[in-house]
Structures are given as C-alpha cells and as structure tokens.
Write a structure and sequence with these properties.
Blueprint: H1 3-17, H2 33-52, H3 59-70, E1 74-75, H4 76-83, H5 87-99, E2 103-107, E3 115-119, H6 121-145, H7 147-160
Helix pairs in contact: 2-6, 3-6
Length: 161
C-alpha cells in the first residue's frame, strides 16, 4: 500500500467514525433554557437577515434606526441603555449609519455636549421599506408559533428579562 493510499484509507476510517452533526448526542443541551434561547435567536435572526439582505440592515441596526425614528433627538447614551449596546459598539454602528446617509448627529438642544440623533430623508425612506419587511418577517415567525404561542412566548421572555 502506498503512502497516498494509506492516507486515503485513514481519512475514510476517520470519516466513518465521525458522527454527523444531525445525529450528535446533545446531552442535556436541548433542556437548557440558554441553549434553547440561543438556537431560537439564531433561527429568528437568520430569517431577519435574509429578509433584510437587499437593504443591508442587520437586527441591531434596525433596532437603532427604529429608536431614532420613534424618538427624534434621542442621544447615544439613551439608545445604548434601551438596547443594551456598549457605547463603543454603538458609536461604530452610528458612524456606519451616518456614513450611509441614514442618520445624523446634531448638537443637543438642552445639552450641547450630547448629540441628538435624527433620521435623514434617506433614513426615513429606508424605514418605510424596513417596516414592510419586518411585518413579513414577523408574520413568518408567528406562523410557526401561532398567535397564542407568540403571546405566551413574549410573556415568558418578559419574566426572564
């Protein structure tokens, strides 16, 4: 047997011993709240990302844009606190949104040391598109759960929060 054929035989032997991911023994993981939440989050985010791909908007970006839309002149600290985003991460995100022409910073009316955040005309137009897509995304998620299931899930999640 040549060196190459021994290597190939070894790869085949290893491959036959490996357990495919779908058949892996997950042990207690599926019964752990954190694991189940994370897997559910991944499924929801995957659908969201696919829904928003053409508009190049991620879940956290949508949340920030929505807060700016609903709270004109909100500041960065308020957004960070409301969404649990670290200041440095939020600053990077706001810079990216500003670079895309979606949001702008203006000196605060009460405290000129802070910046009031506002959507630009481009940002407002994007939000109209995003709202329609979010409605489609949410409809797909509710189809999986049913209306009563959604209400129950939100109640249970609120208890954890």
């Amino acid at each position: 047997m040549t060196t190459r054929s021994r290597a190939a035989a070894g790869q085949v032997a290893r491959a036959t011993r490996e357990v495919p991911a779908a058949q892996a023994d997950l042990g207690p993981l599926p019964a752990l709240v954190g694991y189940a939440l994370r897997r559910a989050q991944l499924a929801v985010f995957q659908d969201f990302v696919e829904t928003m791909a053409a508009l190049d908007v991620r879940p956290a970006q949508f949340s920030v844009l929505l807060l700016i839309e609903r709270n004109p002149a909100i500041n960065q600290a308020q957004i960070g606190e409301a969404l649990g985003i670290k200041p440095a991460n939020l600053a990077v995100m706001l810079n990216a949104l500003a670079a895309r022409g979606l949001a702008e910073r203006r000196p605060g009316a009460r405290d000129r040391r802070t910046h009031a955040l506002r959507l630009t005309a481009t940002g407002r137009a994007l939000m109209r598109q995003l709202h329609a897509r979010v409605a489609d995304h949410e409809r797909r998620m509710v189809e999986r759960l049913g209306a009563a299931g959604k209400a129950q899930l939100l109640r249970l999640l609120a208890r954890l929060i």
